[in-house]
Amino acid sequence: MNWTDERVEKLKKLWSEGLSASQIAAQLGGVSRNAVIGKVHRLSLPGRAKAGGTATTVRAPKRNTSAPRAPNYASRIATRTVTRQQGATMLKEEIEVDLMAEMEYRPAANVVVPISRRLGLTELTERTCKWPVGDPLKDDFHFCGCESNDSSPYCSYHQRLAYQPVNDRRRAAARAN
């Protein structure tokens, strides 16, 4: 298939009107969608213009902002423009996004850290805390060694560190992202 001057002009006109490559190929006839895309790139045509109302956009339903919120929940509603695909056409639409203010993490000041007994691996028993402290490749590496419960390998302090409720882990992961 040869690209005549008339066909190139028609391609440019249809592209500027916002038609997709498939629609342009159908109107030109005897050319594939990929051939249209290739020619558009070779001609260095700018991005397609918005189609003149051929596709309908779906708006996100408005959120009820009068719902009661927790007192420590600081939020704002912002509008963000996103693109999504509908068939072969990319659509831009504005959606409302609920933004949360970043909460500052302050560790509790009254936490009592137990004094470690600094046991080596061969000194551990079934009743001692097996929480590792330090770098295993260094000479000062040791285990906590405090007394542990029958059902746990850790003392009560290290048990709280090791076994966090699922909701706390999710909250901490969300803060990290």
Helix-residue proportion? 25-40%
Q: Name the strands of the widest sheet in spatial order.
A: 1-2
* Count of β-strands: 4
Extract low-pLDDT stretches: 53-58
Task: Please compute the radius of gyration using only Cα atoms.
Answer: 32 Å
DSSP helical segment count: 5
Cα distance spanning the termini: 52 Å
Proportion of beta-strand residues = 15-25%
Largest sheet: 2 strands, antiparallel
Give the topology string: H per helix, E per strand: HHHEEEEHH
What secondary-structure arrangement, pairings included, does this model have?
Elements: H1 5-17, H2 21-28, H3 33-42, E1 75-86, E2 89-100, E3 132-133, E4 142-143, H4 156-162, H5 166-176
Antiparallel strand pairs: 1-2, 3-4
Comma- or semicolon-separated keywords:
single chain, 177 residues, two-stranded antiparallel ribbon, 5 helices
In a few lines, what is going on in this structure?
The strands form two sheets. Strands 1-2 form a two-stranded antiparallel sheet. It has a two-stranded antiparallel ribbon with strand order 3-4.
Folded structure, characterized:
The chain is an alpha+beta fold. Among the domains are: 5-42; 121-176, no CATH class. It has five helices and four strands, in the order H-H-H-E-E-E-E-H-H. The protein has helices at residues 5-17, 21-28, 33-42, 156-162, 166-176; strands at residues 75-86, 89-100, 132-133, 142-143. The strands form two sheets. Strands 1-2 form a two-stranded antiparallel ribbon. Helix 2 (21-28) crosses helix 3. The protein is elongated, with a radius of gyration of 32 Å.
